[in-house]
Structure formats: C-alpha cells, structure tokens
Request: fold
Amino acid sequence: MNRHRILVCWGLIAALRCSPALAANHAAVGSYGFDASGVDITAKPGNDFNLYANGNWAKRTVIPEDHSSWGVWDILDEQSKSRVRGILEAAAKAHAPAGSNLRKVGDYYDSFMDEAAIEKQGLAPLQQQLAEISRISSYSTLAAAMGQAVRTGDTMPITLFIYPDFKRPDAYAGYLDQGGLGLPDRDYYLQDNPEMAKARDKYRAYIVKLLELSNPSVVHAEAVKRAAAVFDLEHRLAEIQWSRVRQRDLAARYVPWKRSDYPLKAPGLDWAAYFKATGLDSQEVLVASVDSAITATAAIVPTVTIAVWKDYLAVRTIDSHSQFLSKAFVDAHFAFHGTALQGTQTQQERWKRGSQFTQNALGEAIGEIYVREYFSADAKASAHRLVENLLAAAGQRLDTLDWMSSPTKAKAREKLATFGIKIGYPDKWRDYSKLSISAGDAYHNALNADRFEYERNLAKLGSPVDRTEWDMTPMTINAYYDPTKNEIVFPAAVLQPPFFDPNADSAVNYGGIGAIIGHEISHGFDDQGRLFDAQGKLTDWWTEEDAAKYKLRTTALVAQYSTYEVLPGLKLNGELTLGENIADNAGLVIAYDAYHASLNGGAAPIIDGQTGDQRFFLGFAQVWRTTYREQITRQLVATDPHTPDAYRVRSVRNFDPWYEVFGVKPGDGLYLKPDARVRIW
Reply:
C-alpha cells in the first residue's frame, strides 16, 4: 500500500483568497470543516496533540477487515475506486470499437471479473513462462531469463528503471538497481527479533505453497527443501543490498558505467545476455545506482545452482501475477502479503481489486473519462492559483531565514521561481495503441500491460525528457515533487473534500491542505531535493557554510524523530524519514504564514469557541487521522520514508506559535525548550 499521503485541494476560492469567515453553504465536516466530535477533551494538547485532536475519532474507529489501516486518506481512496468502478462497468457494457481505449478498459476489467473463466483455466496461463524457466540450462540462459522477467514486472536481483539523467536532466538514463526479494525489505531477512522471524517463517511457507500449486506432482518434503534453498538465496541477496537509508544518498546512487565495463566491474553475470534480453544492448552508458550491490549480486550468480535459480524465477514469476490466476493462488497471495505482512483480515471485494489493477494498466485511458465527470476546468484553475499562493508564502519564508546566506538564497529563489505546477490531469494523454488486450484473458492482459509499460519506458532512451508526462493517474489520492523536473504534481482525485472544502473555514483549509501543499513545495529543499538546482541537475549549489548549518538542523530532526516509539520496543528511523519530516515541519510553517497573510491584517473570527490559530492547528491534525494494524505499522517503520500519521502531527512541537495557542508549558510531554526546537524553514 502506498502511504505517501501528500494531498492537495481544489478551488480555495473565497476561503483562502478573501474572507476568513465561513462560506454561505454548510461545511461537509462539522460546523466549520473540522470534526470536533473526534476531539478527546480529556487529553492535554501539550502532552499529545494527536490524541487531543483525534483521540475520540480513533476510539470509535474500527479498521475494516479488508484494510490494514483506516483514515481520511483511505476514505478518499474508497471513493475514487467507487467512481472508477462506474466507469469500468460502463466500459465493459459499451462494446466499443475494437482497439479503442474504451474497449481495452472494458475488456481488461471484465476479464478480471470473470472468476469462473479464470478458475476454469487453472494452471494453463502459467505454463508458457514455467516451460521457459524449465529450459534454462546455463548461466547465460539464466541471465537472459532474468532480463526477460524484468520486462514483465517481476522483481529480479538486478532490475531496471528509466529516469531523467541526474547530471543531464533533459535526457533519460537507464539505472540498474537492486531487487529480487520476496519480503518487503532486506531488514526482514537480517533483523534478529521475534516479529521478523515470524515473517520469515510465513514467507518460507508461502514459497512452499507456490511451488506446490504450480507443480501438483511435487511432494511436500521436496517442496520444503527447495523453498529453503530459494529463501537462502534471497537471504544472501539481502546481505549485500543497500539499506533504505543508504539509498537516500542520491549522489552515491549516480555511478555511470560504460556497458562494456559491467563484466569487468561486476563479473559473474553474463551481462551481454542480460542486456540483450532487456533491450539495453545498444546503450553506451548505464547508471549503476547501487554499484557495490550490483557487483556483489553478479558475484553470487555462479555460486548458486541452476536448479535453485529456476525455482527462484518460478516463485518470483508466480508471485508477481498470482492475483490473475485461480482462487488457490489468489488466496495464498493474500494470506501472505495481506494477512501475514499487513494484518488485513479479509480480501477486498473483487471489483475493488479489478478497479485498481485496471487503473494500473490503463490509468490515463480511465483518467480521461474520470476528469470529464469529476473535475472541471474551473477547479483546475482555482487549484493552480492556490498553489501559486503557497509558493508566494514559501518565498517570503525563504527571505526570512537567518541561517542561509545571500548567495544561497538567491539560487534558492531562482529554483522556487522555476517550479513547474501540474494540476488535475495531463495536457497530453498516454497513447495505448500498442497495448494488446483480449477479452477473457486476465492473466495475459496483465503480462501485456507490464510489457507495454516496460517498452514505453525503454523507448525513452535517446529521446529528450517529456515534461508533459505524469507519474500518477488523475484518480490517484496522492501528489509528488520531481527534482529532475523541479515540479509539483497534484492529481484530480485528491483535489476534493475532506482535505479541502470550499464551504469550510479558511483556517482549517490552510492547516489541512495548505500545509500539505507547503509540504510538497518544501521537498525541493529537503535533504535530497536541495541537491538539485533550478534546472533539475544534481549539483552542489549551496555554500559550504550554509550546507553545514543545514546539516546541523537536519541531524537534530533525525535525533528527535528517532526517539518516537510507535510500538513497544519499535522506534522510528529518523534517518529514513528525514526528508518527509523536513517537509512536514516546513509545510506547517509555510501554511501558517499563508493563512495569516490571507487575513490582510484583520482578526480571525471566533468559531465554536475556537480562535483562528486553534482551528488552523486542528485542521492540520485532522488530515492525519489514521489508525493502523500492528503488522502494517512494523512494515511501514521498516520500509516507508514517511512517519506514521499520528507522529506527523508532532511537527507542531517545533513551531513556536503552537505553544502559545494551546498554552503548552515546561513539563508537558511534547514541550521542547526554544533552543531544542528544530527550525529549518
């Protein structure tokens, strides 16, 4: 599940641009945009602001059995899936002309929904791939098989992605990366604690299950033995892979090697066979984005028998597409990935899964219909103005920084002034003419969609960067900052209540969606984004003194978040979450400035006994109302660069105005002495 909850709103209109008073129509949530019934008045704001603002909501909230967590983000996601369902069912009934996007959308969804046909096919859809794996007879044919598996979206020990070149952001580069693990992260293999040991046991059992399902003639004892060998191989891969913290060092991840150097710098893998299979055999230079891991992975290849590699490839192939197979495979996939790793009790309804899978395959074809029905041109224009308002507030905050020198500020202002803004949906829709979709063939439709996406990205090499392209669909409840394009992007589906409500109080809107927009803006200046200049080039444009001052502040933020214990004995990794924590803290500050600017020197009204500033901070806390199951919490702490939502609310303790607004004093649980508060923006 994607936990990157960087959300934005549409059309702040009067609420952010004019009067701070309530609009004439009633707010969708509460009396002014905040659900006051969710407040726990027995909690002291200074001890736990999330508990105060959201405690009663958490007490009465039951996580649905088909979810690993539940919160306002999940509610919006459910709404998006429901809207898409209507589009998909209409497309399936439309019988549109063959080859049209509408026909492909309808056939893809309808094929997945036909459980009876899928069940009848049984193992048949797998047979061609398993037969190809069975024919591997040498390490050269193994390398070729790995390359072919990358084309269909299988996670392999060495994988590939296409992205703008860090040093030449107007051109694309091929990046080789680490992969190939069935558990969520290397730490699941390496950490010595009961929870990770339990996950490893569940994974071994899952491998056994996949081997038995794909070969009914194999005896159980033999499957257990072969599964152990596959797991041991993955354990060896985990040992040499970069940690997620180390992967955050983008400068270290930019190591261009000539294609001819790979056999010399990473011997053990037949690189000629691999590059030919992946279609990279004409590329002169490829970036080794985790160079030491690539070298070590290649060295492992000839030390493992072909038989074990064949089992490994079979497991990875089946796991990647098991949800398009018969019920036995679907149930096994869910029992491991859903229940064992995330704590989810019940598989989501098939239409929800079909909605998501069809979006994954044909997202912009669906998005073109979605925005016609749910997102107007006026909403897009209003949202664009809103983002510009927050950019102006960020610029004013930048001017006030007392730790940044004038030369660095000048370049920072240049970068801020060149931010690209994308709202709602792309100006140019994706061409799906080369994607082949057949009615009644769910499994191969999924494979074809993966191959199409791979070929689409591969074709970028040698071409200028397409700055009109989006990395998310219009139906996605999310947003992002791209450092190589220096742009912030907000899909249509997140530009709606409850994150923004045009009938709500402006203070709540600023505290909620305004802080999230500020969060995205500040990603251009977090510990990773700051390494890219206004043109999107990886370069050091800071003075040494400013970089040292910045490092001092970010180190303090790492230390602060690393003290937070989310479960008994489980603390946050402040280094892994640093970039998002910087952005959470910065977004709050930027939005607060923008809110006060919107008052035009006037006083905010008192609403339901709350001052404007109180409503601002409550609006900020409301955005992060979420409750989690234990298993997904552990997974997120190990893998996610975002702090779990309740702890994102703690950004307030670094912001002076919050102390005054809620009377926070020494001795309160969240109190920090003024010199201990981390101030970056």
Q: What stands out?
A: Confidence is low (pLDDT under 50) at residues 1-24.
